[in-house]
Amino acid sequence: MSVRIAPSILSADFAHLADEVERVAQGGADWIHIDVMDGRFVPNLTYGAKVIETVRRITDLPLDVHLMVVEPERYFDDFAAAGASSLTLHVEVAPHLNRQINRIKELGCLAGAAVNPATSLETVREAAADLDLLLVMTVNPGFGGQSFIQASVDKVRRARMLLDASSSGAVLEVDGGISRDTVRDVWRAGADTFVAGHAVFAAADPAAEIAALRERCREQV
Ligand code: DX5
Ligand code: ZN
After folding, report:
1. What is the pLDDT of residues 186-198, one digit of tens each?
2. Which atom of ligand 1 lies at the shortest distance from residue 37's CA?
3. 99 alpha carbon to ligand 1 midpoint, in Å?
4. Residue 178 — pLDDT band, cuts 50, 70, 90?
C-alpha cells in the first residue's frame, strides 16, 4: 500500500498561500487538504469556493476537500466547479448518505465520508462499498494543532476491516494530530492517507517533514 501525505492548508501562512502550497507540492505532498468549516458543525469558520479555486490555480495536485459543515450538499456544485478532486462530508450531518455520495460522484469528484471520534463506524457500513474515501477523525474537528486521540488506532484497524469486508477499495484517511510520533501506528492499523497540518506547516523544512512522515511508515519495528 502506498503512503499518501495530504498537508492541510489550515496551518499555512495565508499571507503567502501560493508559496506555502508550492513548497509542500515540491516537497512531495500527494494531495492538498482543504478544511471547510461553517461555524455550525464545528466552532470555527474557515473558507469556501474562493480558496479552493485559488489553490486550484496554484497546483495540479488533487484537492481533498473536507466539509465540516451542516447541509454539505448545498456546496457540492460550487466546490466541484472550483476544482475540488474529492468532497468528504460528515456522516453526523448526512441523513441521506447514499444520495449525497451519488451526487458527489455525478459531479466527477471522489466521494468521502468522515466520522468524528465519538461516531460509530456502523454509520458507514451500509455505504462502504460505494465510498471512494473513508475519513476517520483522530481529533475532534474544528482546529489544527490538537493532540492525536490514541483510541483512534483501534478504530482505524476496525475501519480497515470494515472496508475489506465490504470489498471496498476506498482510501482510508486519518486527520488530526498526525506527526512523526503518531503516523506509524495508524499506518500499521491500515490507514493509507495522512492529513497533516501543524506537523508540516509549522516545520522549518516542510519537505523534510513530509519525507519523515513517509519514512516513519516504511520503518520496520
Ligand atoms: C481539524 C481539521 C484538520 C486539521 C489537522 O478539524 O480537519 O484537517 O487541519 O490539523 P493538525 O494536523 O494540525 O492536527
Ligand atoms: Zn481536515
Report:
1. 999 999 999 999 9
2. 6
3. 27
4. very high
Residues 6+ apart with CB under 8 A from 130: 98, 101, 102, 111, 168
Which numbered atom of ligand 1 lies nearest the CA of 10?
Answer: 9
Model's pTM, two decimal places?
0.98
Contact 17, 46 (CB under 8 A): no
Which protein residue's CA is at the shortest distance from atom 4 of ligand 1?
144
Is the Cβ atom of 37 under 6 angstroms away from ligand 1? no
- The H-assigned helical ranges of 134-205 are 152-165, 183-189, 198-201
E strands, the chain, in order = 4-7, 32-37, 63-68, 86-90, 110-115, 133-137, 171-175, 193-196
Rounded to a whole number, what is the distance in angstroms from the first to the last CA of the chain? 17
The set of catalytic residues is 35, 175
Residue nearest to atom 6 of ligand 1 (CA): 141
